[in-house]
Amino acid sequence: MFRPALRSLPRSLPRLAPSSSSSLPTPIARPLLTRTMAHKVALPDDFNKDLYVPLAQLDPEVQELVDRETWRQFSGLELIASENLTSLAALEANGSIFTNKYSEGLPGARYYGGNEYVDELEILCQKRALEAFSADPTKWGVNVQPYSGSTANFAAFTALINPQDRLMGLGLPDGGHLTHGYYTAKKKISASSIYFQSFPYQVKKDTGYIDYDLLAANAKLFKPRAIVCGASAYPRDWDYKRLRQIADGEGAYLLCDMAHISGLVAAGAQNNPFEYCDVVTTTTHKTLRGPRAGLIFFRKDKEADMESRINNAVFPACQGGPHNHTIAAIAVTLKLANTPEFKAYARAVIENAQTMAKFLHDKGYKLQTDGTENHLILWDLRPLGLTGSKVEKLCDMAGITINKNAVAGDVSAQTPGGVRLGLACLTSRSMHKDDILRVASFLDRAVQLALDAQKAAGSKKLVDFVAAVSSSPGVTQLAKEVREFARAFPLPGVPDSSKIKAFADEH
């Protein structure tokens, strides 16, 4: 059987053999020491003196950008579905001294020395990852080293299938993700379409739901080696049992990229992909509410070498040394994700999304699938004669951050007819139903202002639209109200909002 990961590592690198135990290894044992205070050492006055200077003093330009971004997030409404606001503890871990350490390899099999605490950290993160998703450690393993969801996906493909093997993922214009094999008629866009042959499946144009029957029929013709489920803009849950049946019918692996919904899955608020999938990948910064990174879960009980294939695909096949500071922040995030408070948060995310969806639907706006079952809403603006690009621009000027997005039936993801709204960030700022209704009313006003601006522009060109919006008193007033409203709520990671440096509002 083909093994895409390197068959033999360079002599200088350790072989990354899977653990012989059915459970995770235990941290390295060390004697219990009495804690003592370290003595104070004089700071150097040589070429190293700058290593001890705070950011604000050393680099005021970068500090100002940090301050401006903090003010922007505090003063605005973040509705990007692929974003969230992480915890103070995760921010502290992500900025910790673990950033100094290089640690190619796995716990107990590192290329460099001095990794005893990095080993303990990574083992702890693995343990918490399996616990957060209730994954049986005798059946599931996890690699916590991927730098992002994109690298996690490509490493998973590298481990599972050969170059130029076939895969099927939801098409990008239908709500899928770039890394699931997206290409256009003239160009292969993502690495997954360059190195593998991909064929997209779709949603039904009339309902916006996944067309499982068409997927099954096309799979019989295309004969994929892997089927990918998961999306970046799909407002409904997934039928993993049906997907498993389709994959089994073609002898294909079933991979779930749960990046967008992983926090909801951990909280038990969505269907569980671990019941049916061979591999589950995720980012850690969306609904999971952690740092920007990725995870790969794998069924190590089905194929004896699955663990080593995944691990070798991550390193050394696809990336180098792990970002240990980020793994520390992931561990913190997974601890929080395994609490009753996080489960309540996940339920509130869905409730808030459904509250906003109902408001917009009752106003007569067209939503893909007429609503949502998760954290996001896909708003079809085509019946209004607007593009997602124009509404995104206007909302940006008003302090509401959204993104243009393709909707079912769009010819290209480059010229989308809709916008995507996510409720994870606002829920992280402790906004509840009444607050969400206020935000929804802001969005309603924004769209009406966009229609007025398009009419005033006298053309459908984006540049003319932006000029019309820039001189709109209605947009100026909306921006003022949005910022006053947003600043009434706390910003995660900032315990004392009075210490946030203020800047003049810009329109």
Total of helices: 17
Rounded radius of gyration (Å) = 24 Å
Helix fraction?
A: 25-40%
Give the helix/strand class. alpha/beta
- List low-confidence stretches: 1-22
Number of domains: 2
Question: What's the main sheet like?
Answer: 7 strands, mixed
Strand content: 5-15%
Shape: globular
CATH architecture of the largest domain: 3-Layer(aba) Sandwich
List strands and helices in order, with pairings:
Layout (H helix, E strand, L loop, with lengths): L54 H4 L1 H16 L1 E2 L9 H7 L10 E2 L2 E2 L5 H17 L7 E4 L5 H12 L5 E3 L22 H5 L1 E2 L13 H11 L3 E4 L10 H11 L2 E5 L4 H5 L12 E5 L10 E6 L6 H13 L5 H14 L2 H23 L3 E2 L8 E5 L7 H10 L2 E2 L1 E3 L12 E5 L1 H5 L4 H25 L4 H9 L2 H14 L21
Parallel strand pairs: 1-13, 5-6, 5-7, 7-8, 8-9
Antiparallel strand pairs: 2-3, 4-10, 9-10, 11-12, 12-15, 14-15
Helix pairs in contact: 3-11, 4-11, 5-10, 7-8, 12-15, 13-15, 13-16, 15-16, 15-17
Key features of this structure:
15 strands; seven-stranded mixed β-sheet; 507 residues; disordered N terminus; 2 domains; Aspartate Aminotransferase, domain 2; Aspartate Aminotransferase, domain 1; four-stranded antiparallel β-sheet; alpha/beta
Summed up, what is this model?
The protein is an alpha/beta fold. It is built from 17 helices and 15 strands.
